[in-house]
Structures are given as C-alpha cells and as structure tokens.
Amino acid sequence: MVVDPWNRILLAQGDITHLKVDAIVNAANERLAGGGGVDGAIHRAAGAEAMHAACAKLGGCRTGDAKITPGFELPAKFVIHTVGPVYADGRSGEPELLASCYRRSLELAVNHGLTTIAFPAISTGVYGYPFEAATEIALRTVAAFLSASTAVEQVIFIFFRNADFDRANAIHNAVRMGHDSPLKNVPQPPSAVVIREESDDRGGSERVFQRNGKPA
C-alpha cells in the first residue's frame, strides 16, 4: 500500500536545538567530535561534555551512515548523528551518500520507536553541496521512505535562515507537484511552517508552530 507522504512533511524556519521532537538530526563529522555550524550548536545545547562522552563510545560514523545518542539537555529526546558527503562535482557518489544520510536516519528513528524527527540541510554548509540539489534529494528521499512506511508521523525540515527557508519552500512545492526542477516564485505550500517564540504565564517561553499564520 502506497501512502501519501506530503501531509507528514513540514518545512520550518527556526533553531533546530529548540524543537521538542523525538529526534533531531545532527550534520556531524566522521569522528562525531562536534564542530562548527549546526553540529557545534547541537553539542553545546545538549551539554558538550555529556554529548562528547556519548559520541566517543560510538566509534565514529561513516559518510552516509547514522548513529544515535540521547538528547541530554535538548528538548529533543534523541540526536541522530549523520555524516553528509563533501561535495566534489556531483558525480562522485555524493547524491547517493546524501540520500543514504536521510534513509539511515529514518531507519534509526523507526528502530527506536521514534515518530517525529527534524532534519537540518545536511552537507549544504562547509561541505559545499549546492542547496537546491541537496534539498531536492532530501525531499525525494524522505517522501519515498514515508510512502512505504507509516511509522514516522512527522518529518520537519528546518532552516535557520529565512532565505534558505524561502528557497526550500519553492523546491518543496516543485517536487510535490511533480516537476523535474525547482520553480521560482512558487506560492507558499500548505505545509510551510514558521516557528516563533511566545511568552508563557510563568515568565518563560515556548516554540510555537504556525501554518499559514495559524497554529499547526
């Protein structure tokens, strides 16, 4: 039975370390030693000492594979660490390795009974993978996985910068409508989500999902 995956895929703009989901995915290096960008941010938010100790027990991670640790001080219960490819020319196995990052992360989530998972834009930072190509691979790979399985209830693609969120939105809409390449100036799809902070009555704050201006 083929299941429509798109209602379970959300695009969001915000900080992945603030998401209260079963698992967030870390764009890690092969040593799982922490680093810059989202990798460093996740390690710091989780508690660098505890995360470093947990990762040290895993023996590293090959490109295209994934490993899992607790989330420690993060709102997320777990962190799935995956190692994306360094982009060379797009003809050196990078697309297959990048797709494997998403598949292996989802497989780990299913194996651990996790139903909500959030991804950053793997390999699009210092690893140099072109954003449009990487985002299309991510969307198609995740959609294919969700089409074959109902175990994962929600996948969030989260982008820290507004500009990346807007670009991803256009790519999402193009892929969802069955086009071979991303479209420009595509209207915001129903699954687009913005994350904002609201103060609560205890003086704290919480992250609020909104879909087209309404609670998601």
Task: Describe it.
With 216 residues, this protein is α/β, with parallel strands linked by helices. It is 32% helix and 22% strand. The protein has 5 helices and 9 strands. It has a 9-stranded mixed beta sheet, with helices on both faces. The longest helix has 18 residues, at 94-111.
Write out key terms for the chains shown:
216 residues, alpha/beta, Leucine Aminopeptidase, subunit E, domain 1, nine-stranded mixed β-sheet, 5 helices, 32% helix, 22% strand, globular, disordered C terminus
- CATH domain topology: Leucine Aminopeptidase, subunit E, domain 1
Overall 3D form: globular
Looking at how many chains there are and whether they match, the oligomeric state comes to single chain
Estimated structural class? alpha/beta
Q: What is the class in the CATH system?
A: Alpha Beta
| C-alpha-based Rg, rounded | 17 Å
Number of helices: 5
* Domain module count: 1
Summarize the structure.
The chain has about 220 residues and is an alpha/beta fold.
Topology:
Blueprint: E1 9-13, E2 23-27, H1 37-46, H2 48-56, E3 66-70, E4 78-82, H3 94-111, E5 116-119, H4 131-148, E6 154-159, H5 162-176, E7 192-199, E8 205-211, E9 214-215
Parallel strand pairs: 1-6, 1-7, 2-4, 2-5, 5-6
Antiparallel strand pairs: 3-4, 7-8, 8-9
Helix pairs in contact: 1-2, 3-4, 4-5
